[in-house]
Amino acid sequence: MFILQQHLSLLVLFWYASVFVSVQGTPVPVTIDPTSEAHLGNQPNYATLRARFELAQTLLANLYRIFSTPNLHRNHILHWAFGEVSPDDFDDIYRNIGVLYNPESYALISAVNEAPTTGASAMQGANAYTNFDEHGQATGLHFKTRFYTLVNQLDQAAIVIHELTHLFFDLYDCFLKDPPYTPTFLPVMEGNNYNGPDYIWGFEHKSLYFLTAHAPHVTKYNADSYAVAAIMAWRVKDMKTDKDIIKALKSGNAYTHTTLYDYLPRPQNKGARVGKAGSSSKGSSGKGKSSKKSKSS
């Protein structure tokens, strides 16, 4: 019965995707840059990657719809993935979701089947990552071969959404452990060479819910908040009551594969500081760091 329900859910999901595509009247996935498609379209696994972008867009369309008007679903998803945010922070979050959902937001893809050992040491265990040049400008998304070994398609779509937030908004994965929980790129940039203050990860199975409870003022900068919001919004879209929505949210993690990020280095060297870690810039983007190299999921 459980397997049958899973198959039915996927059928409904892909039906929803086809309806979304027909309404938009444009090829899917609309977020892959045409230049990337021209160069990479013949590579192995590209068709799978394209399908996961399509699925990600379906999830984002649903999330944008839910966040467009005050309702039970928006209240619960916002609180679950971002915490009790201020009106200004909600506006930034909603604006970001709108960009992610916008068919004219194109994503540059640099690699479809990157080998596990390619790239910086901190990225070698990743499913995907976003690369940046020396000026802090995103140069494209890199997808590792292990991305295609993930069984759950929603996990893959969530990774796409996570990476898009890095690409479009320069969002973060790490935050300093102590108040005001400043976002920081340094642990990912420096990997095992990081010698700065203690930090926490904003990933769902790490410290996302610590941030939503204690630091909602920084969650708009957290890449995984958007991926979790998209998955959970899909899960509860047909629920009618508070009780049913809460039950659905608590039924399991957004990601089914909870070891997606276990390769990442652990916090170390308590108390040591290396310059100014992170940024306190205002607005919906975390841009402004010129030394970052890549962010991953």
UniProtKB/TrEMBL annotation:
Tree of life domain: Eukaryota
Signal peptide: 1-25
GO molecular function: metallopeptidase activity
Key words of the record: Signal
Region (Disordered): 265-297
Biased composition (Low complexity): 275-288
Lineage: Eukaryota, Fungi, Dikarya, Basidiomycota, Agaricomycotina
Source species of the chain: Panaeolus cyanescens
Family matches, as InterPro entries: MetalloPept_cat_dom_sf
Transmembrane segments: none
Protein name per UniProt: Lysine-specific metallo-endopeptidase domain-containing protein
